[in-house]
Design brief:
Order of helices and strands: HHHH
Mean pLDDT: 81
Largest sheet: none
Subcellular location: Membrane
Main location: membrane
GO cellular component, one term: endoplasmic reticulum membrane
Number of domains: 1
Protein name: Transmembrane protein 41B
GO biological process, one term: autophagosome assembly
Helix content: over 70%
Distance between the termini: 25 Å
Length: about 80
Amino acid sequence: MSLLILLSVFLSAASVMYLVYRNFPELNNDEKEKMKIPKDMEDAKALGTVLSKYKDTYYTQVLVAYFTTYILYPFVEMKFS
């Protein structure tokens, strides 16, 4: 039962993340390079810079992307660890 709950949380978060990705504005190549899960402080600062540029116009998409990324973050860490 717990595996089913875990799988449903993952699939729900992944679906929401896909919808945010589809509705996010077009990014240039430099911004696309910075849109990744940060591995260190430099990556986090670069991501913050890109997101702060879009947070006023696309507030909902940025907010939902932020929350779903941190829901999916433990799954990413398990995969790459």
